[in-house]
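INTERNAL TRANSFER SHEET
From: sequence group
To: structure group
Subject: Damage-inducible protein DinB

Please process the attached sequence and return the structure record in the designated field. Keep the field labels unchanged so the import script can parse them.
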Amino acid sequence: MHTTLILNQLQYKQWADGRTIAAVEQIDAHRFPSELAFARQQLNHMLRVEEVFRARLQGTEEPHTESNSELLPTTAELSERLSESNRWLKIYFGAMPDVALREKMHFSFLDGKRGTMARVEVLFHLINHGTYHRGAIGRALDIAGGLRPADTYTVYIHAAEPQRRNES
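Return from structure group:
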């Protein structure tokens, strides 16, 4: 595996998560309460899945038995916990040797079914999982006044490295 690519993907995830949180914070709670609740539910789900996989990566007890909760954290708490998760993922995967990235983990999914994934597959899952749910949040942001930020990888690359926009 190429460490630079992994760290770049994690930087992208952190960037996209941050843009989504910032947009969710702009939702007018009085005019669009269901859209705000939906966005918070999606962020909560993303975070809980990340926290479960973090425990699996560390070989510790999983902190959740379900992928969502009835009581939703505030947007500020979700932002703080998601930022911490992104920081941890960058440190963990940035220090991981190639051989360990390919190492298989055996675990039970939250639905009780058994699963096996390489550590690098967990990384891909978390990046892809977040993209899926940020897209769902995007629909709520559209309804709540067109607040959806562009969060594709190409937008990230051109924001992070503007010189790449006009390279030939």
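Handover comment: The chain has one domain: 3-166. Strands lie at 104-108, 114-118.
Transfer complete.
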